[in-house]
Design goal:
The protein has one domain: NAD(P)-binding Rossmann-like Domain (Rossmann fold, 3-Layer(aba) Sandwich). It is built from 12 helices and 13 strands. Helices cover about 40% and strands about 15% of the residues. Bound molecules: nicotinamide-adenine-dinucleotide and UDP-4-deoxy-4-formamido-beta-L-arabinopyranose.
Length: about 375
Amino acid sequence: MLRVSTEEKLKKCITGACKMVLVKSIRMGDTVLVTGGTGYIGSHTVVELQQKGYEVIIIDNLSNSYENVVDSIEKITGIRPGFEQIDLCDKLSLDDFFNKHQNITSAIHFAALKAVGESVEKPLLYYYNNITGLINLLICMIKYKVNNLVFSSSCTVYGQPEILPVSEKSPVLKPLSPYGNTKQIAEEIITDTSGKSKIKGILLRYFNPIGAHSSALIGELPIGVPNNLVPFITQTAIGKRECLNVFGNDYNTPDGTCIRDYIHVVDIAKAHVIALERLLSEKNESGIEIFNLGTGKGNSVLEIINTYQKVTCNKLNYRIVPRRPGDIEKIYADTALANNVLGWKAEKTLEDMILSAWNWELSLLNN
Ligand code: NAD
Ligand code: WQD
C-alpha cells in the first residue's frame, strides 16, 4: 500500500504539483522507520533518506519537536514522509503501528531525551524514556522481523579520554550523567539483543552536531535556554540572550578554552544513509558495528566564536566565566574507521556549519 503511495507522491512531483526534487530511484520495499524524525538530527536524516529514494515513516511523540517539521521536509524534498505521533514508551500503540506497517525493513532510532543537566535532575525520566523506548522498539522489531537498526549514540560514552584522537577502541568510561549512561546501556542492550536475534545494528557515536540544512527550513530548535554552545551563540547574536558565558579559559589547551569536534548535521545525516545501506546490502562485518562520526579536528570555544564573527561580520557579546561542572577539557574523533570501513567522511567546513546555524536562526525571525 505504501509503495503505491510513494509512486503517487512522485507522480505529483513530476507533474509539478509540489516542489520538484530529483529522486533518481525509488528503493521499493525499503521503508525506513525513523524514530524522533521530527527532531534536529532526525529531520535532516529524513531529508537525506528521501533524496536517496527511501520511503520514510516517522514516529515522534513531539516532546521536543513540532509536527510542522513534516511540512518543512516536504518543502525541501517534494515528498511528504509518513508521520505518526506515538510515544515509544506506549507499547500497545507501537505494536499497532508495526502491525499496520509491515513493509518496514529497518529503523533509525533517534528518539530520546538529550539534555545532560536535566538528566541529572530527573534521572528516572531519562532512564524510563530512553531505555523503555528502546526496549519496546526492539521487541517490535523482533516480532515484526525488522532486522536493521541504526542507533544514535554519542561521544559522551568516552568521557575524557586519555589518548586523543579517540577511536572506537578507546575505553568506554563511567558516564558523567544519567543521559550518558542511557547511551552506554542502550549500546549494551542492542549488542546483547543482536547476539540473540536477527537484528544487526550500527551504533553511530556522534561528536558535536551543529548547523542546519542549507534551505534554512529545518534546524535545531532548543526549548528554553540552550545548553549547547552554537545555539547559545546564535541566540545571543540575534538578541534573544544578552551575553554568551564562555565556561573557563584556564584549561590545558592552546587558548585555555575547551576543545570539541564540531560536525555539520547534514554530514551526520548522510552517514545514517550510508550505515543503512551497509546493513541492507549486508556489507556489515559483524552483528554490531560502531563508528565515530566527527571531523577528526578539534576546535576551541574561542575559535567557534571567532568563526561566527568572521562569517557573519557580527560582533558577539561574550565574557569568560568559571568552568561549567562536568565539562571535559578536550575531545576529538579518530575518524579512520568511519572513513575507511563505513566509507563516509565529513565534507562541510566549520564556516559552513556556523553560517548555516546563523541562517537558521535568522529564518526563525519570520516564524
Ligand atoms: P531532538 O530532541 O531534536 O530529537 C529527538 C526527538 O525524539 C524529538 O523530536 C522528541 O520529540 C522525540 N522523542 C523523545 N522521546 C520520545 C519517545 N519516548 N517517543 C517518541 N519520540 C520521542 O534531539 P537530536 O539532537 O535530534 O538527537 C537525536 C538523537 O541523537 C538522540 O538520541 C540524542 O541523544 C542523540 N545525540 C544527539 C547529540 C546532539 O548534540 N544533538 C549528540 C549525540 C547524540
Ligand atoms: C561545547 C563547549 C562548553 C555553552 C553536550 C553533551 C554531549 C553531547 C553534545 C549528546 C564546552 C562550552 C557551552 C555555553 C560555553 N550530546 N560552552 N558556553 O558539552 O561538548 O556536549 O552536547 O550526546 O553529551 O554533554 O557540548 O555545546 O554544551 O559545549 O562556553 O553557553 O562550549 O563549556 O566547552 P558538550 P556543548
